[in-house]
Amino acid sequence: MKLSTKGRYGLKAMVDLATEYDSDGKLSIAQLSERQGISYSYLEQLIALLKKAHLVSASRGAAGGYRLSRPPEQITVGEVLKALEGSTALVECVDTCGTDCDNVCSCAARPLWLKLQQRIDSVLESTTIRDMANDYITQKERNPK
Amino acid sequence: MKLSTKGRYGLKAMVDLATEYDSDGKLSIAQLSERQGISYSYLEQLIALLKKAHLVSASRGAAGGYRLSRPPEQITVGEVLKALEGSTALVECVDTCGTDCDNVCSCAARPLWLKLQQRIDSVLESTTIRDMANDYITQKERNPK
DNA sequence: CTAATCCCTATCAATATGGTATGATTTACT
DNA sequence: AGTAAATCATACCATATTGATAGGGATTAG
């Protein structure tokens, strides 16, 4: 029940990009990886996932970089995690009902999974990257360095 | 962000045991594995985890088996999952604050993790094995076989 | 005594994770 | 035109986890 670094690193990168959105700035992978202490090549792969999901757009070539393809208040954490991790489902059977599991209908745990998933999704879908960026900025002001 | 079969199988076994609790019955690993279609040896290891956490108690020897060591309404899903998976934390930094991560205090994602974890735990701690067993039974009545 | 059961540990294949490396392509700038 | 900076696309790899199998010992009801 762990969230992998894929989700964590990628989300942090998105928040970082969100702080740059209003000033119309771009961030390169080099900048992002430096600001967050993440390996360049690894981050490259994560950004590729975000790009495939149309959450960021790239400008290639020298002086290129990435920026959010939508305003940060229109990007939910759920979307980001889904792009990075494939799905936010705790258990497969909650989204793809009964493909691989043959006793879904008589599963003792299914009601719990559904309830749990519902609560998780409600948080993920109601929180935007803008919210996180705001939290981040006020946090930084209180505790610089 | 997946829950492994460890947690799923183990939890289902606990619910199975809960249905037997009132009639003071025991269930052997052979019975449990048969009723749920899980490998005997694998289930054995999961039950060992539950035993170590004092959630079930065993009687050894012929005609032995397992039963819950407490009434099912006093066992929360959270306890069970913690015993099986080690922790229910989505991200390490939410319980062991700042042991491995050196920028906890300036992490853009931390407020989100805390909020998310809070919601998850509230479900896990307020749901008992008894609740799940009840759900299971009524579900079975509606849809026998 | 014996069969049934818990108990314990070693092993293993498959997959996911987290990361490195390398080279090709595109493009701004001089 | 040339070059440096950047994205893009793969291939590779070490390690850990997962999900299981196997085998044998210890305990106990009948």
How would you characterize this protein structure?
Two copies of one chain form a homodimer. Chain A is mainly alpha-helical. In chain A, 54% of the residues lie in helices and 6% in strands. Chain A contains six helices and two strands. Chain A has helices spanning 5-21, 29-36, 40-52, 77-85, 110-126, 129-142; strands at 56-59, 65-68. Chain A has a two-stranded antiparallel sheet. In chain A, strand 1 and strand 2 (65-68) form a beta hairpin. In chain A, helix 1 packs across helix 3 (40-52). The longest helix of chain A has 17 residues, at 5-21. Chain A starts with a helix and ends with a helix. The interface between A and B is large, with 44 and 44 residues.
Q: What are the key terms here?
A:
DNA-binding, 54% helix, 145 residues, homodimer
Number of contiguous helices of chain A: 6
The total strand number of chain A stands at 2
Helix content of chain A: 40-55%
**What's the mean pLDDT score of chain A?**
88
Going across the major beta sheet of chain A, what is the strand order? Answer: 1-2
Q: Which structural class do the helices and strands of chain A define?
A: mainly alpha
Beta-strand fraction estimate of chain A = 5-15%
As residue ranges, the low-confidence spans of chain A are none
Largest interface, C-beta within 8 A: A-B, 44 and 44 residues
Biggest pleated-sheet summary of chain A: 2 strands, antiparallel
From the spread of the alpha carbons, the general shape of chain A counts as globular
For the termini of chain A, the CA-CA separation is 32 Å
